Amino acid sequence: MRVAVVAGFAPSLLNFRKPFLQALIAAGHSVTAIAPEFSSEVHAAVEALGVSPRAVPFARTGVNPIEAMRSQRAMRHVLAECRCDAVVAYTMKAIALAMPAARGLAVPHRVALVTGLGTGFHGRSLLGRMVRVPVQAAVRRALRSSTDVVFQNADDRAMLGVRPWIGKHTRVHEVAGSGVNLSHYTPTPAPDAPHVLMLSRLVREKGVREFVEAAAKVKQERPDTVFRLAGMPEPAHPTGISMQEVDRWVDAGWIEYLGDLDDVRPAMDWCRVYVLPSYAEGRPRTVQEALACGRPVITTDVPGCRDAIDTPTHGRIVPPRDASSLAEAILEVLDTDMHAMGSACRALAESRYSDTQIAASLVAIVDG
Question: Please, what CATH class does the domain formed by 195-352 belong to?
Answer without folding.
Answer: alpha beta
